[in-house]
Design a protein that fits this description.
Keywords: Membrane, Transmembrane, Transmembrane helix. The chain has 214 residues and is an all-alpha fold. The protein has eight helices and two strands.
Amino acid sequence: MKDYAGRDVALAAALSGVAGYVDAIGFLKLGGFFVSFMSGNSTRLGVGLATGHVAAALTALGLIGLFVAGVVLGALVARRVGEDRRSAVMALVAGLLISAAILIMMGLDGPGVAAMVLAMGAENAVFQRNGDVGVGLTYMTGALVKAGQRIAAALTGGERWAWVPFCLLWTGLTLGGALGAAAYLKFGVMALWGAALVVTGLAVARYRFEKASA
């Protein structure tokens, strides 16, 4: 994260917030499955296989497959337009979230949830570098490990505040999860429009920045 400008750290934290928001909505709608946290779904898959809950295992496996497909889609867009043009991947994510909201409102829950998962997979390509994820936006285990490592370094004479960006990512995801759960309990699937509008606004702002910097 030290190689990223402050605006990029802020963008990453905001997008992590969106991931937490959408994941909370998916978790509540799916009754304990995730649309962005694939470690949790992998555990559900393993438990389902061990306990003979085939339906749960197949659900988890399907969600994991869709997430990977979303990652592939986002990575292809990033490669096609150039990895520095983050607005293109963000526009893709926004489009998928809008599609998810419309589909679910129409009663097409399966395709709607699929669009949610694809969006969360694609979001991880926003900060793609040389074909690899520069900043993971939908999962925080790595960020917490890095925060702990940077704190250890600070305590032994290293850079004092290098841990802060990783904690901001975690905070964004956690607060987003709380907001998503509250919004879903109040508005149901209509809450997805909030995430779609936020990502759309971020994509437009990023596009304008890219155009001004060109």
